[in-house]
Amino acid sequence: MTAPRSASPLIEVEHLTMRFGGLVAIDDVSFSARSQAITAVIGPNGAGKTTVFNCITGFYKPTIGRLTLRTAGGDFLLERMRGHEIGQKARVARTFQNIRLFSGMTVLENLMVAQHNKLMRASGWSLLGLVGAASFQRAEAASVELARLWLERIGLVADADRPAGELPYGAQRRLEIARAMCTEPVLLCLDEPAAGLNPRESAELNQLLVSIRDRDGIGVLLIEHDMSVVMNISDHIVVLDYGRKIAEGAPLAVRNDPAVIRAYLGTDEEALDA
After folding, report:
1. Local structure of residue 78 (DSSP, 8 states)
2. How far apart are CA 21 and CA 25, in angstroms?
3. Where are the domains of the chain?
4. Can you tell me the mean pLDDT for 136-155?
5. What pTM was computed for the model?
6. Which end of the chain is more exposed for a tag (fewer CB within 10 A), N or C?
7. Which CATH class is domain 6-91+187-274?
8. Can you tell me whether residue 10 is helix, strand or coil?
9. What gap in Å lies between CA 13 and CA 169, rounded to an integer?
């Protein structure tokens, strides 16, 4: 079932500036992203895309700026929160450019470990789990069911007991996204999820991300160099260059923006069709 689209912003980035000594990595960047939408942040290498993600997810504390996440449970000022609080309380999940699965654990175990905090709370930090309390058993059963649901959605049911490190590269990418989704986020931040994928794997990734947008109704922030992925699935695109926002809008508008073509895609518009 497709979730209704929201017109109001899920996250608002206002006047974000990040300095490292004398280096200005992000310079007064503002944009917003909605729930039930895929917002891509693109730009050349060194444009500041990952730095923006690091500020949103708590790896960096912005020098200046406000990062407001608006949820049904209230507003969160992310720049004032610790990294683990952004994940646990504000429910922001993230994947990285380099895959960070637990390669020696099984596929199912990777999805279960993502729910560790939820299970620990349900167990009363181990006490209720030790005595087999009904509340913990229900939480454990719900966690297993959620993991099985994501195994089905990423097509890895038959590989549930296989070590994650033995999966093909594209399957590991999908598993990493599913693991993030097992934390039940309201905002999912993906750092170059299509990196290293072949065309078939990229198509599978596109289908997964669109299903997350439409079925799960959350906001997706996407950093990506693969323009076929960006142009095919994004609802909104923000373009950075040298730490500043140079363009923003729908894919078609960004595609035809001369500043974007010059700064990121070169002077040849055929690069957009790659």
Report:
1. G
2. 10
3. 6-91+187-274, 101-184
4. 90
5. 0.87
6. N
7. alpha beta
8. strand
9. 33
